[in-house]
Give the backbone structure.
Amino acid sequence: MNITLNDPYAKEQLKAQVALMQVIDPELGVNIIDLGLVYAVDFSSTAIIRIDMTFSTPHCPLGDAIKQGVVHAMTTAFPDHKIDINIVWDPEWNYDMITEAGKQQLGLD
């Protein structure tokens, strides 16, 4: 999830990033932002926040739990919006998408 400060929704993007950092992948014990699972959060609609994200594998056994965590975190942060989660597989997730903080938490540094 890349945030550009000159984006008209930069404030909302930063708030969303903080909210989504509360969602922990149950298998890995690292938040979904540091794992690089969230590709984009779109605030262009006034009533719907669209989230493009992925899982580490297409058959992620805890994908539903992660999605529920995303909905909970985002509706808590943005109670007046509907949350639309779009699971995508392109680009395919890989270890290079993990942030430095995430790699440290996983002991990969």
